[in-house]
Design goal:
Radius of gyration of chain B: 27 Å
Strand content of chain B: 25-35%
Distance between the termini of chain A: 10 Å
CATH class of chain A: Mainly Beta
Number of domains of chain A: 1
Order of helices and strands of chain A: HEEEEEEEEEEEEEEHEEHEEE
Strand order of the largest sheet of chain A: 1-2-3-4-5-9-10-15-16-17-18-19
Oligomer: heterodimer
Largest interface: A-B, 17 and 17 residues
Structural class of chain A: mainly beta
Radius of gyration of chain A: 23 Å
Number of strands of chain B: 30
Shape of chain B: globular
Shape of chain A: elongated
Largest sheet of chain A: 12 strands, antiparallel, barrel
CATH topology of chain A: Porin
């Protein structure tokens, strides 16, 4: 308990902006055997959009694209003075121009904090974490041109992603009120999907498109009054320059680095952190570049938080997140050859929550 | 004295050279894959898409478009091949080929080694092949440019293969069996029967003669083969042959052999008398001979005579049938020569039937009647005032040549001669066009047409239920299905003349232009086509015969109805023609 109080009033390191969809603090350690339940609600809409990134894209200006509502619940356990684990579940709703994505997310972490005097540090920390997102489908009613195909509707059935990340860093303090940290990490991400369906226009008729092996098969949606149109067609994906496996189910690795600070005073605890990432994806980015697009391989994520402890056990908090490129790492499964341009926009989120210790 | 080891111990320089050379040696070594794998060729005409089984481990692979198979892990045992398409003829292969362990050439000759226990030397001796030829490794249809690498081996392997196939066709038709398993079993029985004859009497060679073109197929060996094959089928416990046993119950093996044997010998000998040296000639000859059902039909027509226990009593008929078969299978004859000769042969057969009926006391079968035949087995093509002929023999053999695209106003003319009172009613039609070694293909199916014989000829009309579906695939693999083209066939009303002196002219180019519109070929791909195309046509509901009284062979065309379900197809089996069309600019 003494350690907890110690932490609450300023000896913890600052929050860690990270790729992980659930916030984590290098020194959010608890007393041995203690549990922490964190509930967080995160939002984005026009009123909260301080970066105005959406408005810089003509096709997204004035739309709901990117509007976000997310609720997360995390349970952490300090099972050893220097080791802790956490499991989280998130339910999120993300709006597109005319569609809505329902996304479920899981997360699990194992981390340790060890005394370490190196470069003036007080402790060293390491975290191994894994998380994944999945949805029943990601549907887009917005007309998209993929290669030479004009898709009037498209739907990715049961998309999911999985990420494994390893981070390590150091913490410092210049006074009981000021704490700092720096970290580096590596991550591996893999996307999968069960099926891809779309509607497209061909010879004046609309067709329902299915991917079958290496072919796209179109079945005419009747009625179509154009005379002499095929009731069904199939075309090798390669004919259109498509390789859906690479475009929708890519894998990647990334390098992350960051740092942050924490200031504690009579008004509560203030945190700010930044995290940068550089991505290397297999296949999809080459395809995007070949089609004249700009792959998004860098992201800067800045996180701020203010927490005011109501009691030793209850800590409400709130803060903002800034992303230089949408939810690049938070929701990898949204990134594909047809959506990559959306990730060029800056993005922000408002977050509020409650931590309960017991 | 310098010790041996010292004398040959490498110097430092030599050791360095060896060390440097090793990587080079490694790269020069064959890959593990090439060491372990077994590759070879299935030949009955090269078989594309045939199933090849390594009998020791039961691994199965398929042949490519050139009949080549490859077992990645090798094959230490005998090889069995079945199925696939004969790339020379476009026909499905219904038999079964075998080869001994270690062989990479699988064909009719290696089959006899396995099913009859013949040695390679025994096969070569019986066929008069030089001892230098390795039958286990030499593909009889191997090509050297436009020619066969070994035309003698090709001709003689074809001769043997034709004996197997004609025995299968003849016994199956006579026994009225159509199942693929039954035909495969008969084919194997024929191969075994010929091998056993060669084994039993090696002194009587199957093929004699000092030159290929001057060689003769020994009739007695063939006759003995047929007799043995019939005997073995009737005695077989193979359940696949149950239907054949029933169908051949009254057939005496010796009578069948006496009637069919001489014709089979004559037919297969065409490959030597007209020995093809070029691949084009070999393919043309194979297409003409292998598709011919004249003998099978004649034996079936006269099967009542085959119950006689005295085979000599069918000898007169045998000679007449042999003449007809010879005419039908001789690639050197023009269509007019063939028509004239077959008329003579058919008259002779009628007379011989009377003789045999007298000899055996068995009533002569009635002459075939109530059928339709394309006049003189040929159609006419008229464009710009000139008329040319396309014969069925050309279509099924060398391939019918067409100048492409068709000139405006080109018409196709034919007469459909009725013999007796052909019974016609509802008609279904299917067509299958494909280009060998390319992906491009087209299939269509029309149902709901009615037909009736009128004084003017055969009238074909649309009904309210007339439907048409079509499937097409281009060379890039893109496919289209047209599930309802009923509007295109809703107003058909055509009468095909049944007079031999009156030809009905059909506007071929107009039909083509309409087809181009229907298939949305705005870039003119269809009119730019060139090359050789396999064409199969099936017409169910019409009793179609060749002019030599042989019913059209049955073919099956399956038109895909769905691109998402491979099992969804419209299948039509019926009398038809399989041939080639050569489009030239």
């Amino acid at each position: 308990m003494r350690y907890l109080i110690f932490c609450l009033w300023g000896l913890c390191a600052s929050g860690l902006a990270a790729a992980n969809p659930v916030d984590w603090h290098p020194q959010d350690t608890m007393a041995p055997g203690q549990w922490m339940l964190t509930g967080t609600s995160t939002h984005f809409n026009t009123g909260l959009d301080f970066t105005q990134g959406r408005d810089r894209s003509p096709s997204l200006r004035g739309t709901k694209s990117g509007d976000y509502r997310g609720n997360a619940l995390s349970l952490s356990w300090q099972f050893h003075p220097r080791w802790a684990v956490r499991a989280s579940s998130l339910g999120r709703v993300l709006e597109d121009v005319s569609d809505q994505y329902q996304i479920n997310t899981w997360e699990a972490s194992l981390w340790t904090q060890q005394p370490l005097q190196w470069l003036g540090s007080e402790t060293g920390f390491a975290r191994l974490s894994a998380w994944g997102n999945q949805a029943d489908s990601l549907q887009s009613s917005t007309s998209k041109t993929v290669g030479e195909v004009v898709l009037t509707q498209s739907k990715i059935i049961q998309p999911r992603d999985q990420t494994l990340a390893l981070q390590g860093g150091l913490t410092w303090s210049s006074s009981p009120a000021w704490k700092y940290h720096a970290d580096m990490g590596l991550g591996w991400t893999e996307l999968k999907y069960q099926d891809f369906q779309a509607n497209g226009m061909r010879n004046g008729c609309e067709y329902q498109l299915q991917i079958m092996g290496t072919d796209v098969v179109g079945t005419r949606i009747d009625p179509c009054t154009v005379v002499g149109t095929a009731s069904q067609f199939s075309t090798p994906l390669g004919t259109y320059g498509l390789d859906l496996q690479k475009e929708l189910a890519w894998s990647a690795r990334y390098l992350a680095w960051g740092g942050g600070l924490q200031w504690t005073n009579g008004w509560g605890r203030w945190r700010a952190s930044a995290n940068g990432q550089t991505w290397q994806r297999n296949g999809v980015d080459d395809i995007i570049a070949k089609r004249g697009g700009a792959p998004v391989v860098q992201q800067l994520h800045v996180r701020t938080e203010w927490m005011y402890p109501v009691s030793v056990q209850i800590q409400p908090f709130e803060g903002f997140d800034y992303f230089s490129s949408f939810l690049l790492n938070d929701l990898p499964m949204l990134y594909n050859s047809g959506t990559s341009s959306n990730f060029l926009n800056t993005y922000s989120q408002f977050r509020a929550g409650l931590r309960i210790f017991f | 004295m310098t010790p041996f080891c010292d004398r040959f111990a490498p110097s430092a320089l030599q050791r360095a050279c060896i060390a440097l050379a090793f990587p080079v040696l490694f790269t020069a070594c064959p890959s593990a894959d090439s060491v372990f794998s077994t590759s070879g060729t299935i030949t009955n005409g090269h078989l594309s898409g045939a199933s090849v089984v390594c009998d020791t481990d039961k691994s199965v692979v398929s042949t490519d478009a050139n009949g080549v198979f490859r077992f990645p892990l090798g094959c230490k045992g005998t090889i069995t091949a079945s199925g696939g398409i004969n790339v020379d003829t476009g026909e499905a292969f219904l038999g079964e080929l075998r080869a001994p362990a270690g062989a990479i050439a699988v064909n009719s000759l290696t089959t006899m080694m396995v099913v009859g226990g013949l040695t390679e030397a025994e096969v070569k001796t019986s066929l008069g092949l030089p001892s230098s030829v390795n039958l286990l490794t030499t593909d009889p249809a191997a090509e050297n440019g436009a020619n066969y690498s070994n035309s003698e081996l090709f001709a003689k392997a074809k001769t043997v293969q034709q004996l197997f196939q004609t025995t299968m066709d003849t016994l199956a038709t006579t026994a009225s069996v159509t199942s693929a398993d039954a035909k495969k079993a008969i084919y194997a029985t024929a191969a075994s029967a010929l091998a056993s004859q060669i084994k039993a009497a090696p002194a009587t060679k199957l093929i004699t003669g000092s030159t290929v073109a001057g060689s003769t197929v020994t009739e007695s060996v063939v006759t003995a083969m047929v007799s043995t094959a019939v005997t073995n089928v009737k005695a077989s416990t193979n359940t696949n042959l149950a239907g054949a046993k029933t169908g051949l119950a009254l057939v005496q093996p010796a009578a069948m052999a006496a009637l069919a044997g001489p014709s089979m010998a004559t037919q297969s000998q065409q490959y030597m008398t007209n020995v093809p040296t070029t691949v084009a000639a070999g393919q043309s000859m194979a297409s003409l001979i292998q598709k011919d059902q004249t003998l099978a039909n004649q034996v079936n027509t006269n099967r009542s005579f085959l119950s006689t226990t005295d085979a000599t009593k069918v000898a007169a008929l045998s000679t007449s049938v042999q003449n007809l078969v010879s005419v039908a299978n001789n690639p050197a004859l023009s269509n007019d020569q063939r028509q004239t000769a077959q008329t003579t042969a058919l008259t002779s057969i009628g007379q011989a039937q009377t003789t045999v009926a007298t000899n055996t006391g068995i009533a002569a079968p009635p002459a075939p009647t109530n059928y339709l035949a394309i006049g003189k087995d040929e159609v006419a093509l008229k464009s710009l005032g000139t008329t040319s002929k396309i014969t069925l023999a050309d279509f099924m053999g060398t391939g019918a040549s067409l100048k492409w695209p068709l000139v405006d106003g080109t018409e196709l003319g034919l007469s459909l001669i009725g013999f007796g009172t052909p019974v016609v009613s509802a008609i279904e039609v299917a067509v299958d066009i494909s280009q060998p070694s390319k992906s491009g293909a087209f299939k269509a199916y029309i149902s709901g047409l009615t037909a009736s014989m009128t004084s003017a000829g055969l009238r074909i009309q649309s009904t309210a239920n007339t439907k048409m579906i079509a499937w097409a695939r281009n060379d890039a693999g893109a496919q289209e299905i047209y599930a309802d083209l009923s509007a295109e066939v809703s107003s058909i009303d055509t009468t095909l003349s049944s007079s031999s002196s009156l030809i009905t002219w059909l506007p071929l180019n107009s039909a083509l232009d309409r087809a181009i519109v229907v298939t949305g070929d705005t870039s003119g791909v269809i009119k730019k086509l060139s090359g050789t195309f396999n064409v199969t046509m099936v017409v169910k509901g019409l009793p179609l015969f060749m002019s030599n009284q042989t019913p059209f062979k049955e073919y099956t065309i399956s038109v895909p109805k769905s691109l998402t379900s491979a099992s969804s197809a419209q299948t039509l089996t019926g009398p038809g023609l399989l041939g080639k069309v050569k489009l030239t600019p």
